[in-house]
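Worked example

This section walks through a single chain of length 285. The input is the sequence exactly as stored; nothing has been trimmed or padded.
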Amino acid sequence: MSHASPRPMESSASSDTTPALLELEHVTKRFGGLPAVDDLSFAVREGEVLGIIGPNGAGKSTVIGLIGGAIAPTSGSVRFAGRDVGRLSPHQRAHLGIARTFQITQPFVGLDVRENVIVGALFNGKGMSRAEAMRVADEVLERTHLAAKARLKGDELTVADCKRLEMARALAMQPRLLLLDEVMAGLVPSEVELAVRLIREINHSGVTVVVIEHIMKAIQGVSDRVLVMHFGRKIAEGSPQDVLSNQRVIEAYLGERYARMRRESAADTGLAPSDTMASGEGEDA
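Given that input, the structure is written out below as tokens.
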């Protein structure tokens, strides 16, 4: 069963002339002298979905931390809506409209699903009353297919439900920019399909999205552009089809087995390797 259909033509992403909502310029982050992110520059336009891929240890989650505020850059600038936010705290950035999920789900202990999402709504910096936060939470729970599980505690949820709870809590903050850190990891194909549809819906509602993911067909299914990282540096950036057909990306990330499968598939079908990539053939990485 395929993980995701190709991204549909309709998208909330604007043209190349749309001003950038998020900009990283020559950002470096060192830990003990070693660069986890090394001279990284890229921009995300309002309404766009940017997928970030790369092998484990490439620096992807560090980038999310740099954008969300958990980590300060050693050098370079992080700009959001034209403002340098590189030294702002996570809650200050949240109040500006940046929300994120975490690879390891972190529901608030002792709170049920609905209460977890209410906390997200109250954290958005807009001065919501509790009644308003409850209304927002209920809307988000419906949107993320968690309404029927609103009274369950975090330890009563499946892996897929925990991932959706992370997204629901972030969405309740009503962000302009949503950072998704491997929200499909550990999910079965049908759950991945649901997550892809949800991300598309979120984006089409006007939220700009940056998503880190290892499932290639899911990345193809949600991304307008893909950025590839390796050893903390950007090695490729462009459309999903172009990037995932890039020989340097294949060698650095997808591997020789993947390249061999693409060649064999191309030989069997009579298509160029880039055509088989576009049709979704090949293994997930």
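What to look for: The chain has two domains: 18-97+176-254, 111-174.
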